[in-house]
Amino acid sequence: MDSSEYDEIEAIVRVPKGARLLQSSKTAGARRGMTRNPDNELGHAEIFLKEENEPEPVAAYPHGWPDSDRNASEAREQERRENAEFLAEVVFQIGLKVAEKAAPHIRKWWSEQALPAMKTKWNDQALPSMKAKWASVRSRDGDRRADAAGDQQGAAVSRDGRKTMSGAEARQRFAAAVASRIYSDGQLRLLRNEPFRVR
């Protein structure tokens, strides 16, 4: 953060013995007014302002003047931000504790109920349909091989009445389809980019 956005105030910070100040997430090397003790519990630091000989600039404006209202609103906004950070930290810590407590129960539920139920559904529904599809693919593949061996002339009729083709013929047809698509796309691109007149 840019230091021109902040006022620096000399102060003495007091924390309970063994506690440490939390690091600021916005400014590198800075600390926040929240503490953590060795048991990882959150707390607050006490801040004692050093005596200054100069009067506060905010006191120069009576309550209700625009500058005093702005400073008050900035202070409220800063307090809201600090409260939000504190609340986020507390919620995060609670979430960690809940996750630690729930992890064994979730693992047990997953291994004893969820995974067996998913395996049962898979075995009852998906697996038979996949086996049927692969069986039909294998039988068609076997039919094609038998037809290619028996009839080298090209198309043959399989047992379900559809015509089949050899791998070489399929590759030739695919190459021809790709070439015609490329040619067609080029012609359409020319028509889109070039103005033309109807005569």
Largest sheet: 3 strands, antiparallel
| Beta-strand fraction estimate | 5-15%
Shape, principal axes of CA atoms: elongated
What is Rg?
38 Å
Number of strands: 7
Tally of individual helices: 2
Helical content stands at 55-70%
Strand order of the largest sheet: 2-3-4
In whole angstroms, the N-to-C terminal distance is: 69 Å
**Average residue-wise pLDDT:** 76
Structural class: alpha+beta
Order of helices and strands: EEEEEHEEH
Query: Which parts are unreliable, with pLDDT below 50 for 5 consecutive residues or more?
Result: none
In brief, what are we looking at here?
By secondary structure, this protein is α+β, with helices and mostly antiparallel strands.
Molecular structure report:
With about 200 residues, this protein is α+β, with helices and mostly antiparallel strands. It has 2 helices and 7 strands, in the order E-E-E-E-E-H-E-E-H. Strand 3 (about 30-35) and strand 4 (about 40-45) form a beta hairpin. The two termini are about 70 Å apart.
Q: What order do the helices and strands come in, and which of them pair?
A:
Layout: E1 11-14, E2 20-23, E3 31-36, E4 42-44, E5 46-49, H1 66-150, E6 156-157, E7 163-164, H2 167-193
Antiparallel strand pairs: 1-5, 2-3, 3-4, 6-7
